[in-house]
Write a sequence for this structure.
C-alpha cells in the first residue's frame, strides 16, 4: 500500500475552484429543472391533447436513457445543427432539462392533489383561471412537492460530475488535472468524494430546514 | 398452597423518563378470571404486554405457573426461553392483528404446526373445532380482509386458543368494534369463562366485567389502587379515585 | 438520411448492447445480494454493526457514482486492487445500487404493521421465523417493485463505464457521434436499445411482483 495524502493540500486551491464550479452548475441546472419542470407539469395537465402527446415523446426518452448519453447528444447535436454554444451552457441546460422531467412528474401529482377545493375557492372569490392557478394552486403544490424536489436536487448535485465528460470544469475535472501531475488517483478521488459528501450534507441540511419551515403551508 | 398461574412481584416499567408501572404486585390463580380496569394511560396495556414480554420489564418479577418469565438470560438463550413461554400465554389485541396473507384456517394452524409440531391434519382438526366454537366454521377458507371486525376478533381468539395456552390475555378486545358487534365477541369470552380458562381481561365495559370476572383490579398512574370481587368493587368502592372513575364509566 | 449508416450503427450498437446487458446483469445480481446483506445487518442487535452499515449507505448515496468508479478503478491499484474495467464497473455499480435497494427493502419491511410482529411473537415465533413466515410474505411484492425501480436506475447508470473505456452502448454511440455527422440518428438507435433493456427488465420484475402479490381476496 502506497498512500500519501500530503499530495492533496498543494492542490487545495484548484479543488476549491472545482467545487465552486460544481456548486454553480448544480445551482443553475437546479433552477432550470425547477422552472422548466413547472412549465412541463402545467402543460401536461392543461395543454391541449396534441401538445401533451408531443411532449410525451421527449419525456419518455429522457426517462428511459442514461443522462450521460443525453449530454453527448446535446453536445454533438447542437453543433451539428450549427449552434456553436459553449460547452458549459450545453452541459448545464442538458442537466437541467433532464431533471426538469423528473420534477415535472412530482409537480404534476402535487398540482392535481391541490386542484379541486382550492381551485373552486379561488374561482368563487372571483379570480380567473390563470390567477387562481398562480396564487392558490401552484404555491401549495410547490410546498407539497418540496421534499421530493429537494431529493432530486441532491441527485442532480452528484450527477453534475457527468459534465466533466464533455470537458466542463468542475470538481472531478480539477482532480483529474492534479492527478495528471501527481499520478495519485486514489488520494484525489477520495478527496473529491469527501468534498462531495460534505456539500451533499450541507445541501441536505438546508433542504430539510426549508422543508420544515414550509411544513405549515402544505 | 397452590402456585399462582400468573404472579407479578414489584413489576416496574419505565419508558425513557416516564414511569408507567410503579411496582405492581398481582397474583392470578389457575382458572381465575381477572379484570383490569382503569383510566386510559394508566398502564393496563403495558402490564399485559410485560406479562408476555412484548415489553421488557424494567424491574420486578413475572412468573408463569412457577417459572420465572423475565429470566436473567442473555442473547439466544433468552430468545429461546421467551419463545417457549410465550406459547403458553396467548394475547388477543384490540386491533386483531390477524395475518392478512393467510386464510382464517391458516391463521389458526400455523402456530400449532410450526411451533407445537402438530401435523396438518391434527392442526386443522383443532382449527375446525375452534372455529365451530366461535361460530365461524363456514369462514375457514376466507381471508381476514373479508371479515367484519367482530368476526376478525373471534378468529383472533380462536387463533390464540389453538395454542392451548395456560393463560389468555385480552387487551380491550371490543374497543375497536362497532357497538352492534361487541356482543358476539363478549359471548365467546363468556363461553371461555365458563370453561375456567385463566384470563386477564383489560376492559372498559364494567357490566361485562361484573358479569364474567371473579376478581377486579383498578389501576391508576401505574399502581394498583384497589381490588376485590367486582360486585363489591363496583357497588362500594373505597378509594375516591375508584369512585370517580366508576361514576364516569357506569354512566350513573 | 443515410440508410447504410443506420443499418451499420444498429448492428454495431447491438453488440455494444450485449455489453450493457452483461454489465447490468452482473451488477444486478451483486446489488441484490449486497442489499439483502445490508438489510440483515441493519436489523442486527449490535449497535456498532447497524451504525457501520448506515454509514456505508450514507456514503454511497452521498457521493457521485462516477467518483466511486474512479476511486476503485484508478485508485484501486494503489491499495493492491487491480481490476479490469468491466469488473470495476460490476463491483461499483452493484455496491452502489445495493445502498439504494437496501433502503427500499427496509422501507417495505417497515411498511408491514407492527401488530403483525407482535402477533407472531405472541404466538411464540422467534425473530427469524417471524420475518420469514409473516413479514416477508406480506411485503415481497413491494420489495420487488422497489428493486425494479432501482434496476432501471442501474441500467442507466452503467453508461458511466464508457468513461473507463468499456465498449458499451454509450461508449459506442459517442464514438459514432464524433465520427459520423448524424448524432440524432445514432442517439435514437442507442436510446431504442436502452429502452428495450429497460422494458424487458420491467416486464420480468412485473411478473415477479405479480407472482408474490397477495391474492385479491386477501387485500382489504
Ligand atoms: N412504547 C412506548 N414508549 C413510550 N411510552 C409508552 C409506550 N407504550 C406506552 N407508553 C406510555 O405509557 C403509558 C401507559 O400506556 P398504556 O399501558 O397503553 O395505558 P392503558 O393501556 O392503560 O391506556 C401512557 O402514558 C403511554 O403513552
Ligand atoms: Mg391500552
Amino acid at each position: 500500500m502506497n498512500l500519501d495524502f500530503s499530495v492533496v493540500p498543494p492542490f487545495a486551491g484548484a479543488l476549491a475552484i472545482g467545487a465552486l464550479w460544481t456548486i454553480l452548475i448544480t445551482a443553475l441546472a437546479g433552477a432550470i429543472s425547477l422552472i422548466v419542470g413547472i412549465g412541463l407539469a402545467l402543460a401536461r395537465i392543461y395543454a391541449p391533447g396534441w401538445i401533451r402527446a408531443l411532449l410525451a415523446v421527449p419525456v419518455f426518452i429522457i426517462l428511459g436513457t442514461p443522462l450521460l448519453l443525453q449530454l453527448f447528444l446535446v453536445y454533438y447535436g447542437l453543433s451539428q445543427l450549427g449552434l456553436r454554444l459553449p460547452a458549459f451552457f450545453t452541459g448545464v441546460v442538458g442537466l437541467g432539462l433532464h431533471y426538469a422531467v423528473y420534477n415535472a412528474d412530482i409537480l404534476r401529482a402535487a398540482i392535481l392533489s391541490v386542484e379541486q377545493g382550492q381551485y373552486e375557492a379561488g374561482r368563487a372569490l372571483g379570480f380567473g383561471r390563470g390567477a387562481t392557478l398562480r396564487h392558490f394552486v401552484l404555491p401549495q403544490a410547490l410546498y407539497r412537492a418540496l421534499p421530493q424536489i429537494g431529493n432530486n436536487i441532491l441527485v442532480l448535485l452528484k450527477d453534475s460530475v457527468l459534465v466533466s465528460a464533455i470537458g466542463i470544469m468542475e470538481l472531478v475535472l480539477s482532480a483529474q488535472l492534479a492527478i495528471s501531475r501527481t499520478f495519485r488517483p486514489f488520494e484525489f478521488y477520495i478527496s473529491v468524494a469527501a468534498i462531495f459528501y460534505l456539500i451533499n450534507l450541507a445541501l441536505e441540511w438546508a433542504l430539510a430546514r426549508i422543508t420544515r419551515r414550509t411544513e405549515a403551508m402544505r | 398452597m397452590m402456585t399462582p398461574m400468573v404472579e407479578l412481584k414489584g413489576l416496574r416499567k419505565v419508558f425513557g423518563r416516564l414511569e408507567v408501572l410503579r411496582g405492581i404486585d398481582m397474583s392470578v390463580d389457575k382458572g381465575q378470571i381477572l379484570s383490569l380496569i382503569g383510566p386510559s394511560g394508566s398502564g393496563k396495556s403495558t402490564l399485559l404486554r410485560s406479562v408476555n414480554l412484548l415489553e421488557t420489564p424494567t424491574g420486578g418479577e413475572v412468573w408463569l405457573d412457577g417459572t420465572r418469565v423475565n429470566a436473567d438470560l442473555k442473547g439466544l438463550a433468552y430468545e429461546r426461553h421467551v419463545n417457549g413461554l410465550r406459547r403458553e400465554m396467548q394475547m388477543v389485541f384490540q386491533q386483531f392483528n390477524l395475518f392478512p396473507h393467510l386464510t382464517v384456517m391458516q391463521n389458526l394452524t400455523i402456530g400449532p404446526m410450526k411451533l407445537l409440531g402438530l401435523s396438518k391434519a391434527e392442526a386443522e382438526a383443532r382449527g375446525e373445532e375452534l372455529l365451530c366454537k366461535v361460530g365461524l366454521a363456514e369462514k375457514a377458507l376466507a381471508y381476514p380482509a373479508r371479515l367484519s371486525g367482530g368476526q376478525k376478533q373471534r378468529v383472533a381468539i380462536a387463533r390464540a386458543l389453538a395454542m392451548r395456552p395456560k393463560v389468555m390475555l385480552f387487551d380491550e378486545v371490543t374497543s375497536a368494534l362497532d357497538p352492534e358487534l361487541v356482543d358476539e365477541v363478549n359471548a365467546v369470552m363468556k363461553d371461555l369463562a365458563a370453561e375456567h380458562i385463566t384470563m386477564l381481561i383489560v376492559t372498559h365495559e364494567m357490566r361485562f366485567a361484573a358479569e364474567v370476572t371473579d376478581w377486579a383490579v383498578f389501576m391508576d398512574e401505574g399502581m394498583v389502587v384497589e381490588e376485590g370481587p367486582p360486585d363489591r368493587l363496583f357497588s362500594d368502592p373505597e378509594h375516591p379515585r375508584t369512585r370517580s372513575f366508576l361514576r364516569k364509566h357506569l354512566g350513573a | 438520411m443515410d440508410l447504410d449508416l443506420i443499418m451499420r450503427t444498429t448492428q454495431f450498437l447491438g453488440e455494444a448492447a450485449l455489453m450493457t446487458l452483461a454489465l447490468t446483469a452482473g451488477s444486478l445480481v451483486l446489488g441484490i445480494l449486497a442489499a439483502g446483506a445490508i438489510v440483515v445487518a441493519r436489523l442486527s442487535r449490535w449497535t456498532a454493526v447497524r451504525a457501520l452499515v448506515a454509514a456505508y449507505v450514507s456514503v454511497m448515496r452521498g457521493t457521485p457514482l462516477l467518483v466511486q468508479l474512479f476511486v476503485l478503478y484508478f485508485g484501486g491499484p494503489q491499495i493492491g486492487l487491480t481490476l479490469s474495467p468491466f469488473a470495476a464497473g460490476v463491483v461499483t455499480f452493484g455496491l452502489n445500487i445495493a445502498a439504494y435497494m437496501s433502503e427500499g427493502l427496509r422501507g417495505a419491511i417497515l411498511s408491514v404493521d407492527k401488530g403483525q410482529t407482535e402477533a407472531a411473537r405472541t404466538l411464540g415465533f422467534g425473530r427469524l421465523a417471524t420475518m420469514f413466515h409473516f413479514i416477508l410474505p406480506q411485503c415481497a411484492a413491494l420489495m420487488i417493485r422497489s428493486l425494479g425501480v432501482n434496476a432501471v436506475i442501474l441500467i442507466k447508470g452503467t453508461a458511466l463505464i464508457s468513461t473507463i473505456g468499456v465498449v458499451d452502448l454509450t461508449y459506442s454511440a459517442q464514438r459514432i457521434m464524433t465520427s459520423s455527422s448524424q448524432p440524432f440518428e445514432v442517439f435514437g438507435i442507442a436510446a431504442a436499445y436502452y429502452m428495450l433493456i429497460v422494458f424487458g427488465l420491467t416486464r420480468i420484475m412485473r411478473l415477479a411482483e405479480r407472482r408474490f402479490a397477495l391474492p385479491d381476496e386477501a387485500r382489504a
Remarks:
- Chain B has a mean pLDDT of 93.
- Chains B and A do not touch (no CB pair under 8 Å).
